[in-house]
Amino acid sequence: MRNIRGITGVRRGLVLSVAGLTAIPAFVLGTGTAAQAASCTTSTGPNQKQVEKYLHLKVDGKQSAADCTKIRSFQSTYGVTPTIGYAGPVTWRTMQTLTAQKAAGKNPNKAGKCPTNKGRIACVDLTRQISWIQDGKKLRFGPVPVRTGRDGYETRTGAKKIYWRHKNHVSSIYHVSMPYSQFFDGGQAFHAVGVKMWNPPGSHGCVNMRTADAKSYWNVLKNGDDVYVYGRKPGT
Q: What whole-number distance in Å separates Cα of residue 7 and Cα of residue 10?
């Protein structure tokens, strides 16, 4: 079995203080993850005003019980951890990514950054965290949200080709299932995962996908098909 590195993982964070949940865990400020906290934080986050505006709350830059409830709901919906209602950089980056993904609409290659002279090609925009399949200038599938490499394990950019496919692959390094794997650069592949696409901090280099999207990619793409990866993931 091959040594495959591109699978999701978890980086543990450190807690600065837990008294009344008013102090902020260190992983909230960076890109780590941890178990969901049981209660709201009363702390005002560095992105409080931006988050309040995004959620159509009163924009006063001060954490309130109503703010926390709405922020926690957003975090729960999009898999942002820890779910304690803190308006930190991870939550704000997720909101910015969602806005960019929505703006992509049905013309994700409007800027012409993914080649249109290759025939069928899978495009991956790390900046917007989206992927799609096009044939020339015609959109074949997508765009769909993806979850790419975290800081230190970035998904490598450039022109590539799918060279190996394994529908029921299991990572020989992490011993985790990687359904509908399609490898295009060393251990980096398209594959399905069981977490939400916005769950921080990201993969170990693979392009994570929702199961239905990974299955569609499996049905459309073949060995030898082109893949083009560009941009830079927020937070890396």
A: 10
